[in-house]
Amino acid sequence: MTIIGDYAVWPAGLPWSATTLLLAAVAGLTLVVLVAALASIVPPAPLAGIPSPPGDFLTGHVYKRTANPPKQFLKWSQELKSGVFQIRLGRKRVLVINTVREAHELLAKLGDSFSSRPTLFTFHQQVVKGQFVKLTLASAPWGEVTQRKRKAGLPPLNNSLVESYVPLLTVMGRELIQGLLSDYQASNERVGDGQNWAVLDSADTIRRFTRMAAIGVNFGMTPKEVDDSWRELAATWTNGYQDPTKEQIEAVTPELLHEMSTYIGRGSDVRSQHGMPQDWLPPLRIFGRPEDGDVCEAVLKLRTIYMNRLLKALKQRQADGKDVPSVLGNIVLQERVKLNHDEMISLCNSMAATGLDQHFHSAMQWAIGFLAANPQAQSKAYDDLLQQHKGERFPDFSQAKSDYLMATVKESLRLSTPLRLSMPRLTNEDVVWRGNIIPK
């Protein structure tokens, strides 16, 4: 054998003509590989007329977004003095919308053009493994199945049916208030006598409320039923995803419930457009799936188990005539809705996502914190409510009429947002916006 350089091994005595041919073949193959590699990394042309911050040649803005992409996007928007700008993630051009006005122009007026979702390597190929029927509406690309699920989910949310869910919401609201009072009493006990202030930690109470509201209203369950189902899920999680025993359910601690809530919340990070660099940089995929991908797959399995249990219990209550008005209960009763089991579980996941992904509680914490720091706003809303009703009690909140109270609620929601960065969207067609073309 003849060694060429330090790497190639060549048969000794091979004629020069054959050697030349083999070398030419190797060189040609190498050239093809290099051309293909360059084609996969050469950045595409930028979108004309839309500004962009400086990025790296190969990776674009993948590593420029820092550990807090929403904050970095806001900074870029301010530096570029533009509510819309473009970034490049690998070879993909991404449009970032950073103001309400531009969001209304693009996502409201031209909403049909942005109705799809991009398919990401980690989440859609590795975790879901291409079974898009199991995805929530916020994660699924546009198609016949997605259209059917959205069509099924709209009727139960019309005004007349929403009013039928008010009794459940009233019960949930009372649970929230009682929980906040308990937190306040506990904080006073921790502070002790002689202090005129207390630190109110309401995170777990608000997290419980968002879960109760999402699960309770969608499946027609009382707060106790939601709590019991959540404890059973925690026991399932620690029991290797197998049905737990009664003793295992009773052994669930508040610390375990908190840990599971945090764990389930991590699943949404993989679905976001900023979580996984290998979604945009294919060479990184040779290192295997990151830990967050494994967590997301486990969370998806756990949520599927949970939705199956809740849906089965809902159908049993309907069969026994013990159900109460609920969103998914109305969907099940719609004879014209033809969804198979996987599609129905996906719709359940979509409807209950606000309580499972643990995003909405942050907006509520900001609102409660603002009201706690501004008691005059509470007093004025309360006085206006009494004045409107002339001191009379009213059966439930749906009959409460107070412009100031409603304005207070709406303004409180402006203090924070459930999601600082929304789920990514994909253009279905070329879009013309302010004379600029946003390609499909």
UniProtKB/TrEMBL annotation:
Pathway: Secondary metabolite biosynthesis
Cofactor: heme
One term of GO molecular function: heme binding
Keywords assigned: Heme, Iron, Membrane, Metal-binding, Monooxygenase, Oxidoreductase, Transmembrane, Transmembrane helix
Record-linked InterPro entries: Cyt_P450, Cyt_P450_E_grp-I, Cyt_P450_sf, Cytochrome_P450_fung
Record flagged with keyword Coiled coil: no
Residues annotated as transmembrane: 20-42
Family: Belongs to the cytochrome P450 family.
Name of protein: Cytochrome P450
